[in-house]
Design goal:
151 residues, five-stranded parallel β-sheet, alpha/beta, 10 helices
Length: 151
Amino acid sequence: MNNKIFVDSSIFIENFKGNTIAKEILEVAIDKFDVCINSIVFSEVLFKLIVLKSGKSILTLKSQNLISDLIKELKNYSELLLLFEVLEENKDVLNLSLRFMEKYSLLTNDALILATCKYYGIDKIASLDSDFEKATITEKIKLIRSMNDLL
């Protein structure tokens, strides 16, 4: 067992929206664990926050060149993400993700997140995404969905 916890994008997004459960999980994770993400989480979080903050479609944002202004507004959040250890994907992680897609019917990003955890020996993932439920049980990774799960 290690003291690492992988934080999924759902925790960040829900925290941004004001979800108190996500906020508590994120605060405790940062305080008590070595927190990790991968580039998938970084990308998902910033993409979703840009869309949420603007209230516009991503195509509208691109056509009106608004992304640079929005990312400046989200600077504190992007800096928070960079405080986390960023685990790199590699060919082994990609191969493992393909197996997880087939075995658990996960979409690509969720499979890459689970494969990253498995590859790096991380036995805890904080996520409000129910798609991880079956896979984390089978793969012996504790799914953190509430404060009780952290105890």
